[in-house]
Amino acid sequence: MAIEQNIELWRNKSLSDFWLTGKGLDNNKKSNGQPYAMFSHKLLGSEDMDAQAMAMTAMLGAVSRVVDIVHGKQKFSVNFSSKETRTDFAAKQIALSAEPLFNPPPGYLMPDIVDVLTGMALHEAAHAQFSKPEYYTEMPGNPFMAVIRNVVEDVYIEQLTSLYYPGYAGYFWKYRRYEFDLNPGKWSHKPSKDLMENELNLRTSDFLLVMRSTRNYVSQVARVNNVADLLKKIIYVEKPARLEKLNTRTVARRIYNELFGNLIQHDIAYSLPSSLLDYNNRGKHQAESGNTNNTNKTNIPSDLQNLIQNMRQEQLQVANMSELMEAGLDPDYPPPPPPMVVFRRPLMDEGAIERYEQARSAVQPFVIRLRNRLSWANTRQVINQFQLPSGELDEDSLYQASYSNRIFRQTEIINTRTRKLDICLLVDTSASMVYPAGKEISRVELARNLAALFVEALEPVDSIKTWVFGFNLKGAVNMYELYSPALPNKARIGVTGAEGTTPEGTAVKYAALRMMAEGRPFVQKVLIVIADGNPNPGPETKLVKEQVKRLKALGCKTISILLGDRPPEYGYENSIPWTDYNTVTTGFGRLLKKLVEDN
């Protein structure tokens, strides 16, 4: 077979040499006389997080190129795993184990490591493309049957991918060699005193190694070799259309019956594999992030992952820039479709309440100051006028006055400063918000603090209604409803994170529509945007200016609070650059006074 003929070539060749042209990789073949085989080990052990993120982002770019070629229609995003993320096929996100990178095997060069990571990503993408739905929903409870089901499915999806893309079969070979052969004792059978359990584990582990090892492993059990030959005849065919019609569940059941047909089924149901449960859970999307069985999966710190995601997103934006420009310049070029907008109420996690309390504590001194300004601007002023010819009796003057018409008083209520307001706060939650905003605080934390400042100050004022939305673009434009008159749980603001890109124009449009629809008629509307960078290039930047202009025509006031290096050039009526909480509080108070006194 053509694939088998190329095995010897793959043994001595790094397939990823062609892709490794990212900055920080191609210039590191030599470092102080050391081969760049240990480049990843030294780099990841350093304290330079930016350099780590740059190198790992380049690796993800190399892996993503191959995945896009083989499974381009699926549009998967590829990242390293952390405590917060796992492989999610519904969201088209593939999480890779960073184990080959943090613990490179002896003699592995950087391209070899990327080969292994690419094999991992291709394997997961192949599951999403070729595995039937029942593979995810009907995993058998019998652990031995589960192992057989996994092995059959893995062989099936890798063979299909190799038939459609023969040149990429070597990535699977490299991944299997790393996974099953570098540590021979990892998957080997461990003898047990229980004869039945011993036989079950021996047959299962040998079947796994015969089918997945790259070293032509041969079992000592004839039944295992016969079953493996049967599976190879069924799956190793040359016509992909024929193979796609194969029912892997039926094949797995047949293999299971052939492998354990002479053993008592009751004993199988109450026996556990000694070393194979890890194979069932290792790197699978079904495993929860807190699964204790998933101990061999190396996770990277979440702050490093956020930095990598942001760098990767910037790379994609630059790569798409020419397409966006072409779409705007060429009238015959079809414009990209507008993104879908989804309003979400994010689920509360365990740390949301604590994060909100921390934000509230950080801004507590300024809450009272801003609330006083708001209360002054929106509280009726009562003035008592004395010594009037008629009105209410002034008892303090009555006892000392001779008969006169000056013993009455009248109360006058001045409403000139009273004005109702509907205020919407729009918070950027894109990946760039992970960058620092100051000493020991990130931009996303600062935005959370500012949101807490406004909500805590605005909540007690009866004449004001408040909405808070987070926004980012990740597959769709996500509008996260964090606080509103219908959702008064302030702790939900603590859910805010940082991922995706910045669809500011779409967010302004739909936040304004939501505020107009749910707000009170004939009440002044105010939109406040907290963001740190430029909107997504192309249509989004143009849409920001269009929507701000439209809101101004409708009488809605717009305020931009500028975090980071964000330029004030998007048409907002008022801009407040961030320096400290006092500046924001004072600046907003002045704008509020002007706003209330207008007209």
Automatic annotation (TrEMBL):
Pfam families: VWA
InterPro entries recorded: VWF_A, vWFA_dom_sf
Domain VWFA: start-end pairs: 422-565
Protein name (database record): von Willebrand factor, type A
Species per Swiss-Prot/TrEMBL record: Desulforamulus reducens (strain ATCC BAA-1160 / DSM 100696 / MI-1) (Desulfotomaculum reducens)
